[in-house]
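Researcher: I need the complex structure. Ligand is 2-acetamido-2-deoxy-beta-D-glucopyranose. Inputs:
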Amino acid sequence: MFTQFKIFIALAFAGCVVNGQIYTDNCPSVSGNVSQCNIDTPIADVPSISTSNILTPTYSLNLTVICSSSRLNDFKTAASCVLNSYRHCGDNDYKTLVVKEAAYKDAITYACDNIGPIMHVQNCIGDSVTDCIRNREAREKRTDGATPDRSEPFSDYRDHFCARRQITKECTEHDEDFLACVGTGTASIYLEYYRKMTPAGCGATSIFIASSLLLVSLLSTFMKYL
Ligand SMILES: *[C@@H]1O[C@H](CO)[C@@H](O)[C@H](O)[C@H]1NC(C)=O
Ligand SMILES: *[C@@H]1O[C@H](CO)[C@@H](O)[C@H](O)[C@H]1NC(C)=O
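Model: Output:
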């Protein structure tokens, strides 16, 4: 139970909430197409990959295996095929909540170049991060139960989805036990992976540019008074 929850948290942190940005119930062709992706590009020693596998690669797949030089290209091909089949089910709005193929491949390359630090960070996410997330979700009315349904404007769903990602990110980033466990260099690698996996609808680049600009402006304000 705890492990599952911990995995859920880290998945959300990695930018890929598994309960589905896109509703596939109205998309009967997706399962056949995903099977075809696996038939077209089998990957040695990796069982057939699904939508949730590819959206959560650092958890649900063995990175050491998929990143090996003999498999990485096949993995990227098959996973992109699965990703595109999934995105294909969403309308233009909902598509913006799923990372695009080029960004996805880039994130995988980055994860493969940094397997050690990424696995280490995932192992540092503990109970105190979970407590923070649950508390903030409850206070900000961002629990699962508060998910807006399709009768509401898309922006309501998007705001809810992106706010949940943001809560997870902030709770993890600021948690003292987590920080003591990871070390700063490693945390920045994970944050970069997270940024790469952030879908455009949640401001893939704007949030990070905004926060680094803020930092620069705070620093320059500070310098003025030195
Ligand atoms: C991942 O695969 C490697 C190489 O086959 C293996 O040594 C390792 O134990 C696996 N890790 C997990 C978590 O299964
Ligand atoms: C599945 O493939 C068929 C044939 O290429 C295509 O018409 C359909 O749109 C695809 N569906 C999805 C969800 O990718």
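Model: Summary of the prediction. Residues 27, 29-30, 33, 85, 88-89 surround 2-acetamido-2-deoxy-beta-D-glucopyranose (ligand 2) (CB under 6 Å).
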